[in-house]
Amino acid sequence: MNRLGAVLVILLFVSICGGCSRHTTVINVTAFGATGNGSTNDTAAINNAIAALTPGATLLFPCGTYLITSQLSLSTSQVTIDGSSCATLKYGASSTGDILLIGSNSLGSSVSLSATANELATSFSTVSSLGVSPGDYLFIHQGGLDYSTDTAPGHPTNCDTSGCRGEVLQVASVSGNSITVSTALHDTYDPSVNAAVVQKLLTPTTGITLQNITFDGQGLVNSCLITKGLVNSTITGYTAKNCTVYGFYNNVGYGISLSGVTISNISSFEGAGFFNEGNLTLSNVSISSIGNTPAQISAAGNTSVNGLTIDASGVTGRAFKFTAVRYGTFNGVTVKNDPTNDNGWSITAGALNTTLRIIRSTTAW
Question: I want to staple 301 with a disulfide (CB 3.0 to 4.6 A). Which of 167, 245, 324, 330 is the partner?
Fold first, then answer.
C-alpha cells in the first residue's frame, strides 16, 4: 500500500471511530437480576449493579417498579442514574435509613484562618496547611454551635444570630498557606470574632446526573434521596413522595443543580433541605403536602432559584425557610396556602420577616 493509501485508511478509521473513546458503559439493573415487577425484592440485584459502576457509566433502570428493602449507596463519581422516565424505586420495609445515599460528608480537620477573610475577596490564609491543591473543594465557615442546636443561655457569640454562616468553594491556586478560590467569598469570616475555620472536602463525589426517576418511600423510610459532599452534579426529572423526613437533602455541596423536580407527601419534616452550599441552582421545583417545612436553604453562597412553587397547605413550620444565605437571586417563587405565617417567607401572605430580614440577598419575582 502506498503512503497516500495508508493515510486514507487512517482517516477513514478516525472518521468511523472518532467517538469510540467516548463510549458510555450502560449498567442495566435487569442484567443483574432486578425484575422491576414491584413485588420481588430487587435490593441485592441493584447493589450488584451499583458495584459494577465505573466513572462515565450509566446505571439504567428500565420501565418498572423496583422494590427495595434497605438503603442503596453510591459514591462513584461521573455516573448517570437514569430512570427512563418510567421507573420507580419503591421502599418496602420499615427503616430509619433512606432510599438512596450518594456521596459522603467527609471533611478534613478544621484549620483556623490567620486573618479575616473579607467579603468578596478571592483569597485568604490559614494558620497551617490545609492540604489542598488546585481543583479541590473546601468549606469555609464560622465556628460555634449551629442555630439548630442552640440552647440556653442563648446563641454563642461565635456565630451570627441567623446561624453559622458558611459556603463551599473551589480552590484555584495555592501558595504556602494562602489559598485563592474560583469565586469570591460571599461573607466575611473573622477568626477572632466568630472563630472562622476552613475544612477540605476529602472525598467529594463529582459529576453525578440523576434523571427521570421516581422514589416512593411508601411512608416506611426516612428520606427519599440524601446527598453528601456532592459537587457539580445535576438532578432533573426527579419525583420524590411518601418519605417521612426529606424528599431531598444535601449537606456540603458545590455546583448542584435541581430542575424539573417534584416533591410531595413528606409526612414529618422537610420537602427539600440544602445545607452548607456553594453555587446552588433550583429551577422549576414543586413542593407540596409537607408536614413541617417545605423548603430550607441554610449557610449558602451564590444561590440561584428560578421557578419554585410551594403549596404550604397543612404545614406546621415555615413555608420557605432560608437562613445564613448570602448573594442569592430568587425569581419566580410562589408560596401559597400557608396556614401559619410562622417566621418564614410566605409571599402570598406578605410575611417577609425574621428569616428574610437577616439575609443579604438580591431578590426578584
Answer: 167
Whole-angstrom distance, CA of residue 271 vs CA of residue 288: 8
Q: Measured between alpha carbons, how far is 282 from 296 in angstroms, rounded to an integer?
A: 12
How does pLDDT run across 10-68, given as a tens digit for each residue?
333 333 344 444 568 999 999 999 999 999 999 999 999 999 999 999 999 999 999 99
Q: Are 35 and 64 in contact (CB under 8 A)?
A: yes
Domain that holds residue 48: 24-104+205-268
Residue 198 lies in a domain: yes
The residue out of 187, 202, 217 marking a domain boundary is: 202
Residue 54 and residue 165 share a domain: no
Asked if 141 and 184 sit in the same domain, the reply is yes
Q: What is the pTM of this model?
A: 0.86
Residue 278 lies in a domain: no
Neighbouring CB atoms inside 10 A of 91's CB total 26
